[in-house]
Each structure stands twice: as structure tokens, then as C-alpha cells.
Design goal:
By secondary structure, this protein is an alpha/beta fold. It has helices spanning 16-25, 44-51, 67-74, 85-93, 99-106, 119-123, 125-136, 162-175, 216-227, 255-265, 310-323, 347-358, 401-417; strands at 2-7, 29-34, 77-83, 111-115, 140-141, 145-148, 154-158, 191-196, 201-202, 208-209, 231-236, 248-251, 271-274, 281-283, 304-306, 332-339, 362-367, 378-384, 396-400.
């Protein structure tokens, strides 16, 4: 799950590091949003090291990602610990002076506050009114623990133990509204072709050039299309997971075999979803025998040639058929892009460039890397389309690959009917 951990500016902020560890060890993806005051107790470097995510308290960082909107929308749960008297007051008043309060206003999932302050502040009528206001709006506000406070004071106002906050957070996740599944029958009567897995390009009878794709996302997309009522053809390269029951399955190994299979069925499909990780290059020749180490210590030279661009070809053939009056299927073509940023551009930049080159209706953009996307059960994708604009930016979804697949298929159904959702 995607959890936002908001950290208020109190001395108890150091305890939230233990809470963050509990979340990450349970497998959750946690983004920490500290208030500026809290960074005087625990520095940004600590939060980044423990969470593995970039940390900011300003709405002006990474503006292109529209973080002040995106983070709250994507979060399955927001936990604020410690929630100081000041932070509770600002949240109750609906203020939006920093990234955390903006995110609280944009929250779609449950919000849990774990208060920490001196006893007099907790019992003050203003604080009690703020807590009542937050609870009346559906927020969960824990009772503070009783014990030693800053200095010699003792009483109610101590931050609850991290284990207790973690338990309350997990209970809140269990009670959260579930994401709606793909509407039943949304693709009834439609034929959807999905490619999945990673192609393998043989070097010799033993070795091949391949990639890390497990096929999990493509299989999840195929299953979601089945649940939406579609007839589903699954063209599978190498996969670590079985194909779902109910699909019409065909197996391929190389990019050229995948190309042939796609060209054979695409004109008969309403939707083509290219989720397979297709090798960009292949050896220009394949040895009939195992390539052996040379006695003279020399290294073999392997020349690579470019594989055809199957996605771009499918779009070109569809468009050519439409221009000649021979039909216009597939109506919706979806590409996938696994990208890494570099010194010349960011992941989103490369994704938009690829969308423009390919000419497809949708492009599912992944940021890939070590322990990211390939083989994982949790992913984050951005759905790019030519209709994206500053007013309607491309939506980003985080969750299991099954949950993300439901978003993809829902969007595909909307593209087919022309009823695009408002991002």
C-alpha cells in the first residue's frame, strides 16, 4: 500500500522513525512529508534513507509532478505522527500552507492523527474543538498516551507507541473503501489482445539475450479484461507466472515471433495492449553450436541488429487500413514504456517522446531499475495520452499489479466509448 507519513514539529518526531520502519518492513511504500519545523528535530536525510523515497515539505519541489495534488490522491492511508497542537489546528481549519496540509486536503483514503503535546495543550478547549472537528469529518484521531513528557512533566500528551500507531494504521487500511473493480460488462462483445512477458533472442543453443520481465503485469491486464467481459487473446513470451484461465493463449519466444503473432490477430481485435517487454536488439546471427571460450584468450564479438518496432507498426497498419476504408481495428492501441532517467531527460520526458513516436492512444509508463517493477508485485504507472494537458495531467496509479491493471482496463473501456474520465 502507498502510505504518507506526515511528521509534525515536536520532539516526539524521532519516534516516527521507528513507525516508518514498521511500515516499510510490512512491505508498504512510504513517502514522508515533514513539516519544516519537524526537520529541526529529524533531518530530511534520515527520512530519505529509511523510506527510500525523496522527501520534501514544499509545494514548489518537483512541480511537474503536481505533488500537492498527486500525493493525496494516490495515498491509501495518511498517518500524521506526531500531530502537534499547531498541526491539528491547521488541519481542522483546512489550511494549505505547506505540502503536508495540501496533501491532507487532497486525501481520498483514511487519515490517522497520532497527537503529541503537553497535557495543557491537549486539554485546551481549542485543541479539543479541533479534534472534534477532524473526527466529525471522518479523520481518525488517536488518544495520546499518558506518561513522561518533555522535561519533568507527566500526563496525557505523550505520543502513542509506534507499535500502537502501526496497529491503528493497519486497522484503518482494512476499513478503507476498496477501489472499484472494472465495471462488469465494460468490454462485453469486445476482443482484446494482450502481449506479456519478455522476449528471448538466442545467441546459441544455450544462451540468449533477455530481460527481467516476469509477465505479471500483462497477465493482470489480461485477467482484468476477462473480468470486464472481453474475449481475450494472450500472446505470451517468457513468463514467471501462469496464464489466467479463459484466455486464448499463444506462445512465442523472440521479437520476430511476437511480431508475426501480433500482425495476425491485431486487425481482428478491438484493443491491442502491448505489455510484453520486447528486445530492442537481437544477434545478427545465431550459432548452431555453443560458443566456447577461445584458447588464445580472445573474446567473441557479437553484432546486434535492431528488432522491428511492433507497436509502431501496429499503429501504422491500423491507420493505413482506416485510410483505405478497409477498417480501423484495433480501435485502441496501448503501449508500455519501461524507462530510466539520465542526464538528458527525466522518465516522464522520455515517455511523452515515446508516445509521440508510436502514435498509440495510451502509453503505460514505468520507472524501472533494481527492485523496481520487473518481478515485483507492486508498481507505479503513469497513463499518458495525447489528450494530456496542464489542466488535465496524466494520472499516476500506485498499487498491486492487479489494482493497476484494473485502472488500465477501465481507461481502455472509456477510450472505446469516448467517455474519458476527468483526471
Amino acid at each position: 500500500m502507498r502510505i504518507i507519513l506526515g511528521v509534525g514539529g515536536g520532539i516526539a518526531a524521532y519516534k516516527s522513525a521507528s513507525l516508518l520502519r514498521l511500515f516499510t518492513e510490512a512491505g508498504h511504500n512510504v513517502s514522508v512529508i515533514p513539516t519544516e519545523a519537524s526537520t529541526r528535530f529529524v533531518g530530511v536525510a534520515t527520512w530519505e534513507a529509511l523510506s527510500g523515497n525523496t522527501v520534501s515539505s514544499s509545494v514548489f519541489d518537483e512541480v511537474e509532478k503536481v505533488n500537492h495534488v498527486r500525493l493525496g490522491h494516490e495515498a491509501d492511508l495518511i498517518v500524521v505522527a506526531p500531530a502537534t497542537a499547531d498541526l491539528l489546528s491547521r488541519a481542522a481549519a483546512g489550511q494549505a500552507g505547506d505540502l503536508l496540509t495540501n496533501t491532507l486536503l487532497m486525501a481520498r483514503g483514511p487519515v490517522l492523527f497520532a497527537p503529541a503535546m503537553h497535557t495543557e495543550m491537549w486539554s485546551h478547549p481549542a485543541t479539543r474543538a479541533n479534534v472534534a472537528t477532524l473526527r466529525s469529518r471522518g479523520a481518525l484521531v488517536m488518544e495520546p498516551a499518558v506518561g513522561r513528557l518533555t522535561g519533568k512533566d507527566t500526563g496525557a500528551g505523550r505520543l502513542p507507541d509506534p507499535e500502537d500507531i502501526f496497529a491503528a494504521a493497519m486497522a484503518a487500511l482494512e476499513m478503507r473503501p476498496q477501489e472499484p473493480a472494472v465495471p462488469a460488462g465494460a468490454l462485453a462483445g469486445r476482443t482484446v489482445t494482450v502481449t506479456a512477458g519478455g522476449t528471448r533472442e538466442p545467441l546459441d543453443p544455450v544462451r540468449f539475450l533477455g530481460n527481467r520481465s516476469s509477465g505479471k503485469q500483462g497477465v493482470a491486464v489480461a485477467r482484468a479484461a476477462l473480468e470486464a467481459g472481453a474475449r481475450v487473446r494472450l500472446i505470451a513470451a517468457h513468463m514467471d507466472v501462469p496464464a489466467p484461465d479463459g484466455v486464448e493463449l499463444s506462445r512465442v519466444e523472440t521479437a520476430l515471433e511476437l511480431r508475426e503473432a501480433v500482425h495476425a490477430v491485431a486487425p481482428e481485435s478491438d484493443v491491442l495492449i502491448m505489455a510484453a517487454a520486447v528486445a530492442d536488439f537481437r544477434p545478427d546471427s545465431q550459432s548452431n553450436t555453443k560458443i566456447k571460450k577461445r584458447d588464445d584468450g580472445g573474446d567473441p564479438v557479437i553484432t546486434l541488429v535492431r528488432n522491428p518496432d511492433i507497436l509502431a507498426e501496429a499503429v501504422q497498419q491500423r491507420n493505413a487500413a482506416a485510410a483505405s476504408g478497409e477498417g480501423a481495428l484495433p480501435s485502441v492501441i496501448v503501449g508500455f514504456a519501461a524507462e530510466t532517467g539520465d542526464g538528458s531527460g527525466e522518465v516522464l520526458d522520455y515517455g511523452r517522446q515515446k508516445l509521440a513516436r508510436k502514435g498509440c492512444e495510451l502509453l503505460v509508463l514505468n520507472r524501472v531499475g533494481v527492485s523496481l517493477v520487473f518481478g515485483q508485485d507492486v508498481t507505479e504507472v503513469t497513463l499518458l495520452s495525447p489528450a494530456d494537458s496542464d489542466a488535465a495531467p496524466a494520472p499516476t496509479y500506485t498499487g498491486t499489479k492487479t489494482e493497476v491493471a484494473a485502472h488500465i482496463i477501465t481507461r481502455v473501456a472509456q477510450e472505446l466509448t469516448g467517455a474519458l474520465s476527468v483526471h
